[in-house]
Design a protein that fits this description.
Elements lengths: L2 E6 L7 E2 L5 H4 L4 H5 L2 E4 L2 E4 H4 E4 L2 E10 L3 E2 L9 E6 L13 E4 L15 E4 L19 E7 L13 E6 L15 E4 L15 E4 L10 E7 L2 H7 L17 E7 L7 E6 L1
Parallel strand pairs: 1-6, 2-7, 6-8, 8-9, 9-10, 10-11, 11-12, 12-13, 13-14, 14-17
Antiparallel strand pairs: 1-5, 3-4, 15-16, 16-17
């Protein structure tokens, strides 16, 4: 069996809802049924074979080629499969992902990995605002799994994050870790303003000294035994984080946000 491959014929002017083209929804369909699936494109619907050349038959391994930034809801609620996006992806990439592996070879839009539950989501380019956050009106963002971003991320990364690991090799925008309930966010690059705003619990691991608000207290330098263990769990990843288990153990610790419960921590590498 070869991977089920969707190759974009021509970019659309309106945005496309890609949520029907996901592993668990296609597993019992014939090639004719898959070709006939209708996708919302602005105010109209288009057939899958109108937008894509479709090849292959392995519905547990999906590849989207020539992808572009107006393809939204790619891999929504993905479970028990693998999807690879060769190009850019739109908003809500990997929304509510339940299991499996999802990879974007380039950039993704707003709300990537929002309310993600489990699995491994890798972004080789940049991510937009609200990475791993809660949808508007909801109170629980990312609930598990691992998100790896090899580029930069926008504002509000991890907003309302509840569980899981978010690993960012580049820079993070303003309000990183805002209203975070639990989980771990690691940032190798710089961070913007209002880091950890209204954090309740959870951990921010930083390679660069941040500008913290007055509601975070300096708790001194520490050697923390759990950090090498944490980074050992990243050894399987194709990432800079896989090389850090020995180097990242002594940190400057800051406790906060004291305007909230004050049980969160910011750890800065020394």
């Amino acid at each position: 069996m070869s991977a089920l491959t969707f190759t974009v014929k021509k970019e659309t002017t309106q945005r496309v809802d890609m949520s029907p083209l996901v592993c668990h929804l296609l597993k019992d369909l014939s090639s004719e049924d898959i070709a006939a699936i209708e996708l919302q494109n602005g105010k109209r619907k288009i057939r899958a074979d109108e937008l894509f050349d479709i090849n292959g038959d392995d519905t547990k391994n999906i590849v989207i080629k020539n992808s572009y930034g107006k393809l939204d809801f790619i891999a929504k609620e993905l479970q028990d499969g693998s999807m690879t996006i060769e190009g850019d992806a739109g908003a809500y990439f990997g929304m509510s992902m339940k299991s499996g592996e999802l990879t974007a070879k380039a950039n993704v839009g707003l709300y990537a990995a929002c309310e993600m539950k489990n699995g491994l989501l890798t972004i080789n380019g940049n991510a937009g605002d609200f990475l791993g956050a809660a949808l508007p009106g909801n109170k629980q963002g990312m609930k598990g799994g691992t998100v790896l971003v090899k580029g930069n991320v926008g504002q509000r990364a991890g907003d309302h994050m509840r569980r899981g690991n978010m690993l960012i090799e580049g820079n993070a925008g303003d309000y990183c870790g805002s209203r975070m309930v639990a989980g771990t966010i690691a940032v190798m690059g710089t961070t913007g303003r209002f880091l950890g705003y209204a954090m309740q619990r959870g951990t921010l691991l930083l390679w660069q000294q941040p500008k913290l608000s007055a509601t975070f207290n300096d708790c001194g330098s520490h050697t923390l035994a759990f950090l090498p263990i944490l980074f050992k769990s990243f050894k399987k990843l194709d990432s800079k984080f896989a090389q850090e288990s020995a180097a990242f153990n002594r940190v400057q610790r800051y406790g906060g946000d004291m305007a909230e419960k004050g049980r969160a921590e910011v750890l800065v590498k020394l």
